[in-house]
Structures are given as structure tokens and as C-alpha cells.
Amino acid sequence: DANGFDASSVSHVCRVLAGSDVSFATQAPVTATTWRPQASAANPSAALYVPLWTYAAHDGAVRDRVRQLLPDNGTATRYDRALAALTARSLESARGLHNYFSWQPNGGRPRIKLY
User: Fold this and answer.
1) Which of 3, 64, 77, 114 has the fewest CB atoms within 10 Å, i.e. is most exposed?
2) Residue 79: is it exposed, middle or buried by C-beta count within 10 angstroms (0-12/13-18/19+)?
3) Residue 9: how many CB atoms within 10 A of its CB?
4) How far apart are CA 75 and CA 85, in angstroms?
């Protein structure tokens, strides 16, 4: 357990993002571990990177899955605005706006990044 980075939390994030295709046969999630001076060797900082371009038919499905994991503090609204600014096409017409979802629990308030 690295600041909330445990098997059940990682499994939940992966299942939400992969939808019904939880095998990850096409492209597997990856993890990164960082040891910093403020983190002890017994409790490193860890991040999960889940590929998004291979497990949904279109960017609209990716958006819906990502929104399930965003905190309820206006982040989803900012995310929707960013998507609207990136493309004039319908999100349901294609995929390719999303690359990876990065999740780092940080002991409670997760740090989320979208690539």
C-alpha cells in the first residue's frame, strides 16, 4: 500500500476505464513508483497509467468513464470544457483525443492527469 495505492483501488480504476474489456489484452496498464526525500522507503509514491485509446469505441465513451473517477469539485466541468476546445467533432464520431489516464491516490485525494 503506497499512500492508498492498493489492489482494490487499482482494480476499481482499471475496471471503470476499461469498461467490459477488463482483460487488457491489447495494451496493459503500467505503474510507476517514485521515492522522494519526503516519502519513506516503506511508503513510496505510486501512479497508475491506464491506456484509453484501445478500450472504448469512441471518445464519448472514454469521457463517460473518466468522469466517473473525477472528484465532485467542478473538475468534470473543466474537463468537458477542455474536450470541447480540442475538437469540433462529436466525441461519439471517433476516438483519439485521449491517450492515458494517470491516477495517483496520494493517501486520499487522488491526483488525476489525462494525456
Assistant:
1) 77
2) middle
3) 15
4) 15
